Amino acid sequence: MPWSYFIPSQWESLKNLIEEREYCCMNFSAQFRKKYFDFYKYRETLQLGSKVYNGATQNCEAYPVKDCENKGETTSAKLIHNNKSKKIIKADDIIVHHSWIDNLLDFSIMLSENGQLLPVYKKTIPGRIINLNKGLEIFDNSLSKVHTVIGDKKSVKNILKTCFNEKTVSDGINSFNYYAMALDKQSFKPCNSSLDGINIRLGIQKDLENLMPLQKNYEIEEVLPRSEMFNKAISKKHLSTILKNQTTVIAEKSGKIIAKANTNEKGFIYQQIGGVYTLPEYRNMNISTALVSSLLENIFSKDMKASLFVKINNPAALKVYTKLGFKIMEEFQITYFLYQ
Asked: For position 173, what pLDDT does the model report?
C-alpha cells in the first residue's frame, strides 16, 4: 500500500526526505526532531515491556520520549506498541507515501497536536502517482481538528482542493503567501553598515517586558489572521520561550529597544529566522539588515544554514534578505480555517 502510518524502521528515510527541502518544512522538521528523532537515536537504550520508562508501563499505548535537549523532560509522542512483541509498530500523527520506483519515502504529512497539517514531499516526485485523498483518509476523524495547513504552495493547494474543499467554502479561509528563502555561509554577504549610536546584542529573559511592544506589533502585522485578536498572555509566554530556547538579537538606542530578530525553529540542517521587527520611526536606516546579519553570523558559527519566510507583498523585507545573500527557493503558503 503506497500510504501508511510512519513506522520506526523508516526514520532515516523520513529524515532524508525532510533534509532535502527543510527550508520549506521547518514546522514539520522541528516537531519530528523533538518528538521522534531523539527516540530513534536512543531506541536501543529504552526499556519497554514490564519495566517503567519515565512513568510509562507496558499497559500504556503512549510512551513518553526523552527530549535530550531539555534535560530529561518528556513529550508525548503517541508511539503505538504491540504488547506481544514488545516492539513499537507505528506513530499515529504522521503518514508517509512510498515511491513505486525504490520504495523510499517521497511524501509525508504530519497532523500536529495543535491542529496543523504539515506536508513535505520530494522535489522530483511525479505528482500523478500521489493520491492525497487516500493518504489523508488514514487520519479519519482526526482531520476534524485541522485548523491550519502549512507548507509549500503546491502541496497546500492540492490538499485544500482534494480534501478540504467543502470545509474552506463553508468556513471561509485566510491564506498568506510567502517566499521560502535560504542561505548558507558561503553565499552570505555580511552587513558592514555603521549604525551610529545603535548597539546590537543578544536578547535575554530580562528583556521580556521591553520586547513585548515590538512582539505585539510584529504578531498583529505579520502573523495573526485578520479575524484573530492579539492575546497578550499567549504572546508573552511564546516570547519567553523564544528567549529561553532560541537565539534573539536586539538593537538598542539610548537604552531603548528599537528592533529585534530571532530564530524560531531548529532543524537538522537549518535554523529558521523570524520575528524581525523594527519600530516604524527607525526604519530605512539599515538596522534590520545589520540585526539579521548579526543573527546569521551566530547561526553559521554553529555550522547550520539559515531559512526564513517573507510575504510576497513585502518588497522592503525581500530587499533586506536579498542584500544579505538569501535566495528565493519556492513559494510557501499558510491557510487558516475560520470557524464562525
From this structure: 73
SS (H, E, C) the chain: CCEEECCHHHHHHHHHHHHHCHHHCHHHHHHHHHHHHHHHHCHHHCCCCCCCECCECCCCCCCEEECHHHCCCEEECCEEEECCCCEEEEECCEEEEECCCCCCEEEEEEECCCCEEEEEECCCCCHHHCCHHHHHHCCHHHHHHCCEEEEEHHHHHHHHHHHCHHHHHHHCEEEEEEEEEEECHHHCCCCCCCCCCEEEEECCHHHHHHHHHHHHHHHHHHHCCCCCCCCHHHHHHHHHHHHHHCCEEEEEECCEEEEEEEEEEECCCEEEEEEEEECHHHCCCCHHHHHHHHHHHHHHCCCCEEEEEEECCCHHHHHHHHHCCCEEEEEEEEEEECCC
pLDDT tops 80 at residue 83: no
**Nearest of 299, 297, 307 to residue 330 by alpha carbon:** 307
pLDDT tens-place string over residues 261-297? 999 999 999 999 999 999 999 999 999 999 999 999 9
Return mean pLDDT, the chain.
82
pLDDT in tens, 50-61: 333 333 333 333
pTM: 0.83
